[in-house]
User: Fold these one by one.
Assistant:
Number 1:
Amino acid sequence: MRIFCLEQNYFSNKKEQLNGVTKTPLIFTKPYSALFQEGVSFFYPEFADELYCSCEIVIRISKSGKNIVENLSAEFYDAVTIGINFSAFNNDDRLLDEELFWLETKSWNNSSVIGKWLPANDFTNKQNINFCLYKNREMVQLCNSGLMIYNFNKLISHISDSYTFNIGDLVFTGTQVNIGELLSGDKLEAFIEDDSLLELDIN
């Protein structure tokens, strides 16, 4: 199982979307070890000087495939949830190397967390899904899937041009912004619409 993550997949607002700004999402992958396992505590990484996160919609791949055409992409995922991707930074000069930056700041153990799954068919309009993140009971992120540059179907088709999907792969579909620095003791809660799907304490 692999985790596919997207950067630069959101317009900043509706005006930018209407103006048709051309962007291509940046794809990077994470290993299975990056997925936080339910039932254990989440600890602030020992190597990190700063920790940030954002919430985003995650889709679960249910069918293997490569070079998937867009109009068939909906057949390749079966569930949707909310996820949190963490980024950890330190003052290591080695991270000026771009490859090390992606590996060490974004792909460490437990750097991706997912919530409870909802059937994809529950969403009649997948381009109008609201999702949000609370930190210490204060909303710090609010977004809608309609601001995606590449919607779910386009993403699956786009990613499958370069990678082969396997059953169980996860796609973190991108976000607009990080919410600011996190500290030990912070409590996070993430929603899709009115459903609280993920709660996490930073220890």
Number 2:
Amino acid sequence: MNRLWPFRNLGLKLLSLGIGALLWISVSGEEVVERGLRAPLELQQFPQGLEIQGEAPSTVDVRVRGTAGALSRMGPGDIVAVLDLRAVRPGNRMFAMTPEQVRSPFGVEVVQVTPSTIVLALEKSLTRSVPIVPSVEGSPAPGYVVSGKAVVTPDHVDIIGPETAVKRATEAVTETISVEGLNDALREEVTIGLLDPSLRLKTQRTVDVTVKIVPGPMERTVRGRPIRVRDLGARLSAQVMPTVVDVGLRGSREIINRIDADDVHPYVDLSGLGEGEYTLVVHTDTPDHAGVTRVDPAMVQVRITSVKD
């Protein structure tokens, strides 16, 4: 039979007793304080087939009480408000928020929750297919136009959300595609989305968008335009042969009809050239996104001489 010896390991027992007493004294002497903080709101047991109309609150304000040490040791996620939606029905529902619905660490007491009532508008979930509308911006290269409407593949997408919001939705949209300065067809994979934050895409996240860019449907020739010289060096003179050219223009009917002959400026660039004879390309400035299809003649003879005093 084993006997109990109360004085066995007496030193260790006294040490443990002393440590416990010191901890009790330190805790009992610590000041109790209250603090306000914001806690995340968790919606648990959400019934299938229901949706929240509008935006549900994501946080609540709580006041907690405890020792200064206990409160200082709290980390993110230690305080969480929980709302149980089990067996909830469609309609405007009110839920009481009490301190008992807030999880907190040992030694920390929740004394108040604000707001004390959470209101949620719950509706049946609905899925529907809507068309995808591409967003295209910019102007093609001079002389080119966008032909027809942009083609979206696939052209419909399934959306899901609260019944009234889904019935109200008319389209999904793509991120913006730029055709600025292009002279050939553009095909790009882009992200699609919905403007109503209460709606979401069921599956599809990207689509292919094709924009057809073709030469403008109308052409016109502006005849006998004088050739200008640019960047002629100091104390130099230039003669151009021939002195005029014909310029072919292309673009939309509206743009071509708006252009006046005086808006077309053929020129040769003489930058860096000294005395001598040169065969140079004729360039042309045109307004309003008109494209130059031809310059006749395309090259001219230029004689550069010095100017005598």
Number 3:
Amino acid sequence: MPRPNILLFIVDGLRTDFLGCMEGPRFCRPNFGATPNTDAFAASGVTFSQAFCVHSVCMPTRASIATGRYPHIHGVWANGVRLRDSEVTLAQTLSDAGYATCASGKIHHEPQQPYRPLAPSITGPYYGFQEVHLSENHLGADYMRFIEERHPDLKDRALTRDRIPEEAHDLTWITDQAISFIEREAQGEQPFFCQCSFHELIPPCTPPPNYTGLYDPADMTVPELRQDDLDRKPPWYRQCYEGYVANGRQPDEPTLRRYLAGAYDQLRFVDHQFGRLLGALEQAGVADNTIVLFTADHGLALNDHWQWRHGPFLFDEVINVPQIWRLPGVWGMGSAPCGRASAPPPGTDPAMVEQVDIMPTLLEQCSVAIPPGVQGRSLLPLLRGEDGACGAEAVLIQERHAPDLVARGLDEHLVWQVGIRTSDWKLIHYTEYRDAGDRFGGELYDLRNDPGEFVNLWPESDYLATRRELEALLMERLAATQDPLPVNEYHY
């Protein structure tokens, strides 16, 4: 069989509990049938319910997907920090191995910038992508040219994504470019890697008119808000909440319900685009030889713990992300893998996995050598159901000097977090916190008895031994994740 193709689909800011295919006691938010294509796709593959991002915002997480390395190693420690050219990316590795590569949509390896309609197009190679159709949270120049040429009457509305019809919507355009690439490359002899990614589901969302109003705000599930939640957390949580209230960015409940309904509208539209991509693989005759991964860069707070958006928070609503795999030769898509009599069945796997695992998994399945310096591990033993395969003991999470704090009226250097999450515990250590005092040097949660992370046990003397054990595990993980490559510049 020829080397497999790859379709990597990344949604910006997708909570796991927005998907109907997710299972478990924490995933209790109604799906309202918003993701039929994603749910059907998950039924033919493996969904890791305990997949975690390495950071709380876009650029660090996307850099980790692209490099298989942690933010304190690849150097993208916050939004606005460019991924350095010396980092070896998944796209570059595949391109060097003979793959045709294309990125369509939000890549976000460079800081956001407004794209003028007549600005020069960004062409490949771009971080290893030979073909690029770039759009970020701001609209891309190529898309705006498309609007000027095909829908000139929508130019002003397109700039603000104001009631853009489906045929002219930027998500449709992004998908169209990816489908065009797939159709062209399916006719050739080269395998291909296509990364398709959309801007965030952070409300207020802007689906096209025919996808607006599908869901009733009255049906939305709003977060459980406990009055003592902020009292049990370090003061900067309350400062973040009060900062958003002061500048009018913290939604009240009616606004929150309306925003959530709009996010489901947008999610239904995103799911439709994902379905179009899967259909394009089938139509081109390459579905049975294409690895497909559906994932997200990070989740969203959406008012959990009184917080809006996502960074700089590390609770599970932000760091637990979808990771749904379908591989050729597995789960009825061809012969059973590894000479086994039969392939393992599809379903939900509770093994703990990380974003840095994506790159080595894809490369191993494509029989491409994994570059030196990659820190993740291949998930193929788990995906193939091999005897003895297991997930990680703990995942590493971090957030450093977040510019997101500035939007709340706080100093971006206020807090610097690094932590670990095991199946039973989460510990977040504050490497730097200017207002910590003696009481709050971090956060500690018993996830077995407090899955909602309401009760911070860090200051409790009864849990000091547990805290010390987890701190030791954290130090071991940090020591084990030092850059294996000889470099002269460190970003931590």
Number 4:
Amino acid sequence: MTILLTLFQIFLVLLLAPLSLGLVRKFKAFFQGRVGASIWLPYVCFATLLKKEMTISPVISFVFRLSPFLVLGTTVLLVCVLPLVSTVTIFASLSNFMMVAGVLAMGSLYLVLGALDAGGGFGGIGATREMTVSALSEVVIITVFASFAVAGNNAQISEMLSLGGSAIFSHPFLILSLIGLTLVALAENARYPVDNPATHLELTMVHEANILEYSGPYLAMMEYAATVKLTIFSLLIANFVYPVVLVQFTLLGALGIVFLTIIKLVVVMFFLALLESLMAKMRFYRLQEYFSLAFLIAVLGFFLTILYP
């Protein structure tokens, strides 16, 4: 049964990942007074990239070719470990928040190594910015999940979901931790105000500058990994607020969870699009203020959770 639940979670999250990107683009177009592209367009774009020929510089090493597989592999590992659809999976025991933070850091490291190996100027700029964002966000992630670990007396994220929903009112200070998690999720997924995911100006890019030298299937893997990562954070935040997941595989239960997962993505993408429509991108040299705010909120939630368990 756990094997079936694990496969179901992996299949569902990987299948719905492009839909989350299509939804946030559609909602942003709505707030901007445009019709916008179809929510299914990301599926077509990924399929098109997979069929295109790759253009690779002759000076690159195996690192450049290996990076897309490693970046995508780390996101798939997070899908296997985190309680996104079910808390009863084979890898649920590996959902220790320190390990999850380490996997996130590894994904950023592999992305940076691929960008540096290409030898391009923009890749170097993007790599520097990516490592800066990663270094500032990791401590916030650890602090946020440490609050849930203290409140639930368990370091596994799969067990922390019991603190969500109505149970969170017994630990009201965890709301601060959720706010901190939301702020760091925007940074980890290169969204406003940390980065502009739709920019075409290389000098302002963070994530996009790292994948500028990729094309064809490699670019599809990098873009798809970023989309899966966005879906992971969206479902994780939604599950902390409304923790309804599958614990026993039945046909009716699976259909209900599929519907509920889509609803969660629609709601989260709506608020993400609304948030991005109300703010502008921050200057890179002011990001320390953003992360300082996220860290202070997370630390405040952590200490209040300790003082008032």
